[in-house]
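Sample pair:
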Amino acid sequence: MTSAGPETPVAPGPLASFARFVLCGGGVGLLSSAAVAELAGALPWALANALVTVASTLLCTELHARFTFGAGRRAGWRQHWQSAGSAAGAYAVTSAAMFALHLAQSSPRTLTEQAVYLGASGLAGIGRFLVLRLFVFAGDRNRTPAPAPAMKPTPVRAVRPNRSTPNLSAPNCLVLSAG
């Protein structure tokens, strides 16, 4: 059945959007973790983290707008700025965790740094999910599908079959039309 206009996508529920958030954000987060570790060899760790955070925030905001929260369209400037604000909070959490690690251990192993970074990113990610779902993309949740066009009633005509004629292709059989 075709509709008169394009359907507005239905936003997923909280569990589906959280699963999508974990898939998109977690995937980008794992890539970001590797990128930070690689860049930190050439740049100060805080700068590497800042660069990766900016790039991953832009990518994730687009993924979340199109897929996670069911907007089905690109994120606007408002969503990018609000998402950037939540990413700034995530940056502060990951930086504080790494700072605390380096206070506790002057030369931690790379695996320890990765564990601390990913743990802090996970906690920051839960906070970001709540901010994005409840504030940034909240208006997108209330969409409903476009109503189907009204169908015009079609008169139904019943014809009594002629019992003497067994030809069912003739117009003397029962005909129902739904239009």
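DSSP finds five helices and no strands in the chain.
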